[in-house]
Write a structure and sequence with these properties.
Elements lengths: L1 H17 L16 H4 L2 H23 L1 H13 L7 H32 L3 H23 L6 H34 L5 E3 L5 E3 L4 H12 L5
Antiparallel strand pairs: 1-2
């Protein structure tokens, strides 16, 4: 008996180290999710809209006469002729390159927002709203464009319309999911422990439909 008790006492530390602790405070930092998984879809949607606004600005600077004025000023500052075409071509090529770069970044961020959000409509709403507002601000600061009140009214109606469509879409999806969860094919049962549950039945197909409609779905 003494030998068995000694063997059990020696094995106890090994067993305790092999079984993971359920205490969240005892988890190591490596078990915590990384910042990339914590980044919300809202940040990606806003950033993609901002990149779309800068994309439009650089596209316009590639062809506008304002770039000619800037190129002339830069040439004069470096002691060159104000009509130096090489400097103007270099500046326009730079703006064109930035246009392509911001376009690629915009689509990358927009795709990340779509993969993290539960609704594609929400992502589109935030993307469109941030794009419109920043485009107006950049147009005012860079090109001295004064937008009439009618433009702001149209932009506001567009955003409101997107919000209404988004809410309607969410209500329809929620209603269909609830009907299937409570409808035929989902039978109630009690497991071995006596806990009440639901046999999902057709629910898996509906969750797959919701997942395809836009979102991460149920893992």
């Amino acid at each position: 008996m003494d030998a068995a008790a000694a063997a059990a006492a020696a094995a106890e530390p090994l067993l305790s180290s092999a079984v993971p602790s359920s205490d969240p405070t005892s988890q190591t930092p490596d078990s915590k999710p990384s910042m990339s998984t914590k980044t919300p879809w809202l940040a990606y949607a806003v950033a993609s809209g901002a990149c779309a606004a800068f994309n439009g600005v650089f596209a316009k600077l590639t062809t506008t006469e304002l770039t000619t004025t800037w190129a002339s000023a830069i040439s004069t500052a470096f002691g060159l002729s104000g009509t130096n075409k090489f400097v103007e071509f270099l500046i326009r090529a730079t703006f064109f390159t930035l246009n392509l770069a911001f376009n690629a970044i915009m689509w990358t961020l927009f795709t990340k927002a779509l993969t993290r959000a539960t609704s594609t409509t929400r992502v589109s709403i935030i993307n469109t709203s941030s794009n419109f507002m920043l485009t107006a601000l950049l147009g005012l600061l860079i090109f001295r464009e004064s937008l009439p009140p009618l433009w702001w009214a149209g932009a506001g109606l567009l955003v409101v319309g997107n919000v209404v469509i988004g809410r309607r879409e969410e209500e329809e999806v929620k209603g269909v999911t609830e009907d299937v969860l409570l409808g035929e094919g989902n039978e109630a049962y009690r497991d071995g422990d006596g806990d009440f549950g639901v046999d999902m039945g057709r629910t898996e197909a509906v969750l797959k439909l919701v997942d395809d409609d836009g979102g991460e779905g149920v893992k």
